[in-house]
Write a structure and sequence with these properties.
heterodimer; A: mainly beta; six-stranded parallel β-sheet; six-stranded mixed β-sheet; 31 strands; B: six-stranded antiparallel β-sheet; about 20% strand
Chain lengths: ~400, ~500
């Protein structure tokens, strides 16, 4: 996963801007040249060790969330040997290379108010230690912090919960802003019939044992009984192991009577050319050389066994083409073309081919290996030039 | 002279041509006879009576059903208003909706054939040659059930799933202003192996105030008021015709049959000694009595077995509303949407029976203090785990209120409707599994399979491929994104 982000970084020139996609990605990522790294709802995480490492001067980081998931809060989230400019960067964990802020940040991640009196004023206290000045921001009505501006060193903060209606369940986000943002939570429940809390001390940083993370890793060996399903959208990629393994059938269906659609499967080598003389499987050649890909004429299914694919085959492209030898019909006239990957007749992965234009031929799916894992890419690319030209492109000569 | 096996060509009103195989003895129903395309993917139906085929009103109705009232076609493709491609795809597997209108050789309809799972295969029965027969629900809810192999019968969970699917399909019809008018065991095929259902015979749909019903219904499913007024003149204002409210009689009859394998109105009571027909007319019509009516036990079988009291409280109330309050007062009947909601709430209370020999394998946990399977009497000894989902109150950051609760079982998948308070378990939701729960080495683990922003009880990020342990009393945000819910865990 870090490869995707590190790829983007490596392709960004010095002085440029690396735009990261939305989502959660396992790091670490490395900034080795002066550039601007901009996230878009991007979270980068590692189990241990730094999440973002900056090994050059002149870097800027913006719009990213960085977290060690299993270290305590002293684990380094961002390590910048020469510092960096940061904007809208959220961290969980320590930072290095940012002056005073390098010292530990001693603020609780979760403050438990417990049960408190509904309709009344309740207050608790926490004693925190700040490495630098900070502001507390909380948007929950009825919840306030005094002081809301903290200074470097020890701070005693009074948190007030006032006029919550009975049975309100509180789970509020609190942002502590230095040049970074750190997120904390306050939880509790307002109840009738109990006395208000008055100044109870909930947290003292010097007594904080910094207990280890409650996130459990290495659980991918625990499969689910129930078969997961995935619905692909155009452009999406999926690792196949969880859903279909390496042996499955491919079915194309649609709801347009009178239109026939035929599958064509290309086994492509490193040069994107069909591999071997049986590198195209279709109704005229119903099996690859070793049977790793087969076409079933009785039901139009394609069977694929990825374990049997020759190692020299780098990509498997599944294409569908409308059979029409008169004026061209295109996929825009096909009602709801849909591909399903099935195991024992049960759909595990589906791809509804929306928005593929009016081409008569569609390169629907691409199977490829990445980091030793087979993946599928929902290409959904219309090919206007027809099957003959497509075959030529893949190095197959077609005799009329 | 045509003979069986000849390939003929029909031209559709859309301009396409379609080949079909002529048969000298095609399957023939009350209104239409059916041929099939050579690949048997489509059925081409023509009217038995040429007058029906030539009726302008019939033609107009069929065209409307195929286009503007069609929930299996997106709005962009000429289907019903508001239909997205996603919801169209969803309902395409739940209805056998006509896909085309035949122009020549004569007016007709093209429908997709039923999906393969709704025909019995060669392994369905060791004693009856039923391979290729439609999976009508009477096979599973009637006397013939004993002739089916166990693998065909599904379990209680699958039958509940079928009930949810059917109520969703009927809800969709009613939302579009349509009524099926002939919901029955013949027009809803079910597959208990997978928990799926498909509604067929769509071309008899009623468009209220526009296209009148063509049929009255099927015995056992016709609403009592329709049966009671059937003999009246068609112009008689007191005559009750099939409509949305009569669908709302047939729907709970089917649901009751799926869950209890018996008809809700068929009991020991004798209504008339004049004739069997008169007795039947009264039993299903003006004097119909629910076999579990708490106020009238005259039609209650002695060996009732499992009753509506073993379902969730909400479902019990729904059946009483349908078959006591609403049996003779159509306006009191619960809507399809209410059925769908209540069935989904019951789904969340399903727990597995610990008796491996129990045929039903699952039951709805009504009383947490007495977790006993109503089908086999086995008491549940294993620990029960309950998740309470709370959604943020709109306009009140950080304040949550309870939304629903779910009983957990080993291997349970979680979807978007378990994560976001604004996403419901319906046709719009993604079926992608976002997380799942497993029992592992005496721990209950919630494993993230792709939900973003999942937080642990201590507020740490729980990325994909990592997990948290579910312990009694913990609380966590299942997603910190907008509308992400708060979850409380309780061990019972």
């Amino acid at each position: 996963m870090a490869d995707i982000l590190n790829d983007i970084l490596s392709r960004t020139p010095a002085g440029g801007t690396a735009l990261l996609p939305a989502g959660e990605f396992e790091g670490p990522i490395y900034i080795t040249k002066p550039l601007r790294l901009v996230g878009n709802n991007t979270t980068v995480w590692t189990r241990h060790g730094s999440v973002i490492e900056v090994t050059c001067a002149g870097a800027a980081i913006e719009g990213i969330r960085a977290e060690n998931t299993e270290s305590d809060c002293s684990g380094v989230a961002i390590l910048a040997r020469y510092g960096a400019i940061v904007k809208d960067v959220e961290v969980f964990g320590a930072v290095q290379g940012f002056g005073n802020e390098d010292r530990p940040f001693r603020f609780p991640r979760l403050i438990d108010f417990g049960s408190f009196a509904a309709g009344q004023r309740n207050s608790c206290r926490i004693i925190v230690n700040m490495s630098t000045d900070a502001d507390i921001i909380c948007n929950t009505a009825g919840l306030s912090f005094s002081p809301s501006h903290l200074t470097a060193g020890d701070n005693e903060i009074t948190i007030t919960a006032e006029d919550f209606s009975a049975n309100s369940i509180l789970y509020a986000e609190v942002l502590v802003k230095t040049q970074f943002t750190r997120r904390c939570y306050i939880k509790g429940r307002a109840e009738n019939g109990i006395p208000p809390i008055n100044g109870k001390l909930l947290y003292e940083y010097y007594k904080d044992n910094e207990s280890s993370s409650d996130v459990i890793s290495a659980v991918t060996s625990i499969p689910i009984h129930e078969t997961p399903r995935a619905d692909l959208r155009k452009g999406q990629r999926l690792t196949l192991q969880t859903y279909v393994g390496t042996s499955f059938d491919i079915r194309c269906s649609h709801y347009t009577p009178g239109i026939e659609i035929d599958p064509y499967v290309f086994l492509l080598d490193d040069d994107s050319k069909a591999f071997g003389y049986k590198g195209m499987i279709f109704f005229g050649n119903d099996s690859s050389e070793n049977g790793s890909v087969r076409y079933h004429a009785n039901n139009g299914l394609i069977s694929i066994d990825l374990e049997k694919i020759d190692y020299r085959v780098k990509r498997v492209i599944v294409t569908y083409s409308i059979y029409e030898d008169l004026t061209g019909l295109g996929f825009a006239q096909v009602r709801s073309p849909r591909i399903a990957l099935e195991v024992n007749g049960s759909e595990r992965v589906t791809y509804n081919m929306y928005n593929i234009g009016n081409a008569p031929t569609v390169m629907a799916l691409e199977f490829y290996k990445y980091n030793e894992e087979w993946r599928v890419y929902a290409a959904g690319m219309g090919y206007n030039d027809g099957m003959v030209k497509l075959c030529n492109r893949f190095g197959i000569s077609v005799i009329d | 002279m045509m003979k069986s096996g000849d390939i003929l060509t029909a031209t559709l009103e859309s301009g396409e041509t379609l080949e079909y195989v002529f048969s000298a003895n095609p399957p023939r129903g009350g209104m239409k006879h059916t041929f099939f395309t050579p690949d048997r993917k489509y059925a081409v139906q023509f009217f038995n009576n040429p007058k029906d085929a030539q009726s302008m009103l019939m033609q107009e109705r069929i065209r409307a059903i195929v286009s503007i009232y069609n929930p299996t076609l997106s709005e962009k493709q000429g289907g019903a208003l508001g239909n997205t491609e996603k919801t169209a795809d969803y309902f395409r597997t739940r209805f056998c909706w006509p896909v085309g209108v035949v122009k020549t050789p004569e007016f007709g309809i093209v429908c997709p054939t039923y999906p393969q799972g709704f025909f019995f295969d060669e392994n369905a029965s060791a004693v009856l040659p039923i391979k290729g027969k439609d999976k009508k629900s009477t096979w599973f809810t009637g006397r013939n059930r004993k002739y089916l192999n166990k693998s065909e019968l599904g379990d209680f969970r699958m039958m509940l799933k079928i009930a949810i699917g059917l109520s969703r399909s009927v809800r969709r019809l009613h939302q579009a202003g349509l009524a099926h008018s002939d919901l029955s065991c013949n027009n809803v095929l079910i597959d208990p192996k997978t928990g799926s259902s498909v509604v067929i015979d769509i071309d008899s749909l009623v468009v209220p105030n526009k296209y009148a019903p063509e049929v009255c219904g099927t015995r056992g499913y016709i609403a009592p008021e329709v049966l009671a007024t059937m003999e009246r003149d068609s112009n008689d204002p007191h005559r009750c015709l099939p409509c949305v409210q009569t669908d709302l009689h047939a729907l709970p009859v089917l649901i009751y049959e799926y869950l209890f394998l018996r008809h809700p109105l068929v009991g020991p009571k004798i209504y008339s000694t004049e004739s069997a027909e008169k007795d039947d007319h009264l039993a299903m019509g003006p004097m119909a009595t629910f076999i579990e009516n708490p106020n009238d036990r005259s039609n209650r079988p002695e060996d009732l077995g499992v009753t509506i009291a073993s379902l969730s409280e909400g479902l019990e109330k729904m059946f009483l509303q349908a078959f006591v309050d609403g049996l003779h007062k159509p306006s009191e009947r619960p809507s399809a949407m209410e059925w769908e909601s209540e069935l989904l709430r019951a789904w969340n209370r399903l727990v597995p029976c610990e008796n491996e020999s129990c045929d039903k394998r699952w039951f709805i946990l009504r009383d947490e203090k007495e977790p006993v399977c109503p089908f086999c009497g086995t008491c549940k000894n294993q620990q029960l785990l309950k998740l309470c989902f709370k959604g943020e109150i709109r306009g009140k950051n950080g304040i949550y209120r309870e939304k629903n609760e779910v009983f957990v079982y080993d291997g349970m998948p979680l979807f978007d409707w378990h994560i976001f308070s604004n996403i419901h378990n319906d046709e719009k939701a993604s079926p992608e599994m976002r997380a799942y729960i497993r029992r592992h080495k005496d721990m209950w683990l919630l494993i993230n399979n792709g939900a973003e922003g999942m937080l642990s009880p201590s507020g740490r990020l729980v990325p994909k491929g990592t997990a948290i342990e579910l312990k009694d009393g913990i609380q966590f945000r299942i997603s910190d994104r907008e509308n992400g819910m708060l979850v409380d865990v309780t061990f019972i």
